[in-house]
Amino acid sequence: MSDRNLYAKAVIWDKWKYVREIITGIVVDWTQVFFRIKGAVITSGLTPTQNLYAEARDVRDLMSTAFKTIMGTDKVKDVKYLSGAALPNWTAVRAAMDDLFTTKKVTDMTLYFIAHGNTNLMNLGGTTFYANQLRSYILEHSSKRFLIIIESCHSGSWLEGLKSDGVIPSNVEIIITTTTATKGAYPDWDSAGGAVDYNPDDMYVEWSGDFLQKLAYYTSDAHWPEVTAYAAAKSIDSLPALFYKCYTAIKGVTPSSTSWTLTERSAAGSIQEPMRYITWTP
After folding, report:
1. Burial 180-204 (b: 16+ CB within 10 A, else e)
2. Helices (DSSP H) in 158-223: which residue ranges?
3. pLDDT tens by residue, 46-69
4. Collapsed DSSP state (helix, strand, coil) of residue 182
5. How many angstroms from the chain centroid is the CA of residue 247?
6. 88-107: b (≥16 Cβ within 10 Å) or e
7. What are φ and ψ of residue 271, in 5° steps?
8. Measured between alpha carbons, how far is 272 from 34 in angstroms, rounded to an integer?
9. Three-class secondary structure of residue 227 per DSSP
10. Which residues neighbour 52 within 8 Å (Cβ) at sequence distance 6 or greater?
11. How far is CA 8 from the centre of its chain?
12. Cβ(148)–Cβ(172) under 8 Å?
């Protein structure tokens, strides 16, 4: 992990609406940077008739590109609306995970969801997907590790809804919800209450756009060592460390004034508040 060549490949946010790879030196297979086999299912549950469909579609596509760069194209599955295809529902998400576990021998599964949501549920492809369905799947796959990001209104409720006998399953390493159980999640805002977004070149969805930019920052040649140092200090894998570093950097020291998520700042009414669960002491 001390070899500088391991830090050579980065995911760089581009203001012209795409994520691109920047190679600085030798091309590195990121799957060799992490100790376990990483995979991801990147899901948008929205369909064209639903509000904010385009924003969710576009930020999901950027997220998918970022994770394919980090994990390898063959280890990331897309679940999204496609005309004439099966709807992006829980059945599709579960099938995608099953395939990655079976054919790619994935050990650590990242799940990213963007959807309309309410308490302990979200709408996937016009059907209701409940927190207890995901909890059951996680418990059935106790030898796998799960990292979960939920971008939806009321997503903080899943921090309770995923509990079994009062605790999060032990094979869940990190959960990031983009707001609390009672607050909303929002598309991209660049100004509110006389304040401006600290990163106005983010796009489509407020928190997810921030997260993509921080992914670019921490997977860069200059800053990847910060991730590995944190992972070593906490005796955790680099992937949850990466997610946590992104999460805390977005919030800043005093989120009501420092957050990159403008809707979390008091100037915008503090109408959004990202939350997290982790297995280690920060």
Report:
1. bbebbbbbbbeebeeeebebeebbb
2. 158-161, 206-218
3. 999 999 999 999 999 999 999 999
4. coil
5. 10
6. bbbebbeebbeebbeebebb
7. -85, -5
8. 32
9. helix
10. 46, 116, 187
11. 22
12. yes
Q: 57 with 45: CB under 8 angstroms?
A: no
Rounded CA Rg of the chain: 18
Biggest CA pair distance of the chain: 52
CB 75 within 8 A of CB 29: no
For residue 240, give the amino acid letter: P
Residue 221, token pair as written in the block: 């040649």
Three-class secondary structure of residue 140 per DSSP:
helix
**Mean pLDDT of residues grouped by 10 in the chain (282 residues)?**
33 36 43 74 98 97 96 97 96 98 97 98 98 98 98 98 96 98 97 95 96 96 96 96 98 98 98 98 96
The full DSSP string for 28-90 is --GGGTSSS-EEEEEEE---TTSTTHHHHHHHHHHHHHHHHHHH-GGGEEEE---TTSPPSSH
Q: How far is the C-alpha of 11 from the C-alpha of 68, rounded, in Å?
A: 10
Q: Which residue has the tokens 């995901």?
A: 134
114 three-state secondary structure: strand
